[in-house]
Structure formats: structure tokens, C-alpha cells
Write a structure and sequence with these properties.
By secondary structure, this protein is mainly beta. It has one domain: Pseudouridine synthase, CATH 3.30.2350.10. Strands 1, 2, 3, 4, 5, 6, 10, 11, 12 and 13 form a ten-stranded mixed β-sheet that branches. Strands 8-7-9 form a three-stranded antiparallel β-sheet. Strand 10 and strand 11 form a beta hairpin. The protein is globular, with a radius of gyration of 17 Å.
Length: about 220
Amino acid sequence: MKIKVLYENKDILAIDKPSGVLVDAITAEYPKFILAHRLDKETSGVLLLAKNEKAREFLKQQFKERKVKKIYHAIVVGDIKKDNGIINKPIGRSPRDFRRHLAGRGARGEMREAVTEYKVLKRFGTPSKKFTYLEVKPKTGRTHQIRVHLKFFNYPVVGDTLYNPKGLPLPNLPLRRGRSGGGIPRMMLHAFSIEFKNLSGKIIKVESSLPKEFQKIYR
């Protein structure tokens, strides 16, 4: 598996994770390094790995203190009317599916604070199939947070077979077969950039180029 390196020094490695690849496969590719955070299998983009325990703890503390700034790009089903907004809704477990998390009514277990900001970059589609292209900034780091919040907001991520199994396919993109009988080549969620401090105290911002599926829309 060929993985593109986006940033590297003696302590930290930032790679461009492809969609469809488990982070466990990444650690197998770099067995001496430690994951600093995680991305879902179908999410692409910037992923940080620590080269030693000191770097792992240093990055872990930044994530804990919410000093790491992350920007995602997402395409969702529906026409979001407001140009920007904040989704502030605690996240718990789904009572029906152990794989899923849930915001709002019906969630079970510990409800953990979750805050997500969004900004509309583009609206497109047809009268019967509308979509919105978003820039998304998660202020907390809960499991599936962006996917759960956008589903709660009634604008699920296109291609998300876990939270939106019957979602509309994108126009002008090749379809794939799946449980819903259609879809697109991938889930339309991309970790576009991440900003953090390295161990020297320098602020580093790493960006991942938009995948071709996004470039077809955002042009």
C-alpha cells in the first residue's frame, strides 16, 4: 500500500489516508509508530502518527485541551439554508446498533459533549436531489461525531452506509453497488487539514489535497 507523506520530522509523521483503508492497516504499514488520533475507514485525509512515546503524549495533550484545529470537507444530502451554524448536541450510544452513535432523543449510556461548526461552501443538485458542500470544524473529538451530528441535523453525509444507508446518489458521479443498491465510490467526508504544535513549539498546519470525487463537485 502506497501512502503519501504530508509532513515529517523526527517525532511526528502526517500521512494522507485513503478512503476505504482501516487505521489498523496504517499501523501495520508503520509498525514502529503510534496513532495520535483516528479516522473512520471511509474517511480520507490527514492522519497523525507519533514516532515515540513523548510525541504521542505531547499530541494527546493537545487533543485533550482542544488545541488541535481540524477542518473537514463533507457533502451532505439536502439543501442547508443557513450559510453557517453550530451543532451543539451530546452524543451517546444507539440502543439498536452497537456500531452506531446517536445525538438527541433515544441515545443511551454516557452522553458526551460534542460541538461541530459548519460553513456552506456550495449548494448544487436538481430540484428533486439537492446537496450541500460543507466545511466542517469539530470542536470536540467524539467517535463518528461529524457523521452523527449531520445525521441529527437531517443532512447526512452522502455515501455513509452506516448512518444513511438509503441516501441519494450524487449526480454525475459513477455509482457503486452496495447494501442500498446504489451510491457513490466512497463516503464524502475528507479530513482536509490539521493544525498542531510540534515538540519544538512550532505551529504546523498540514493539508490534504481534495480527492478527485470532491474536485468534480468543488470547481
